[in-house]
Amino acid sequence: MNLYERKKILAEARQLFKEKAYPDALQRCKTLLDQSAPQVDVLALQALIHQQSGNLAEAGKSLETALGLDPDHPGMLLTAALVNNKLENSNLALKQAMKATRAAPDDLKVVCQCALIIGNLGEQQTALRSLETLIRKHPDHAEAWHLVGKFQKELGNNDAAEFALRKCLALQPDHAGARGLL
Questions:
Q1: Residue 18 CB: number of other CB atoms within 10 A?
Q2: Is the full-model pTM beyond 0.70?
């Protein structure tokens, strides 16, 4: 299969995924993987399709293969952490979330979602350190402030929690999560 054909099939698979035509999207991924060596972008898409289809075990297998090819990819580490958390593989989810945060300390989505996983797995102090580093660089990110408030409240630091939650609401007045914690 030449590069043009590969790109065309991958684009079709992505479009089918967007249209929620998961079986057809998976078939395109299978075609690509059968025709050439495993590639990270195809495996990542295959994992997302499996995840959205509710087949977390297969999503985990695709992610494991993809991470074998690119072990420091923050997006795949985040997705793997989410999948492993749902599969109740807490230790692995925690390791992957922490590694993703280290790999992409400035990525708002990665850090916030990983911090949520980390904190919900009982490592609130670790989550707070990642969030505080992010906030120093992005002080206007409401969700980061919300998560700081959430974890500070869980730790019993009510003044720090209130400060963070009010900061979140100053940035995003309709933030339901922050409102619910005050």
A1: 9
A2: yes
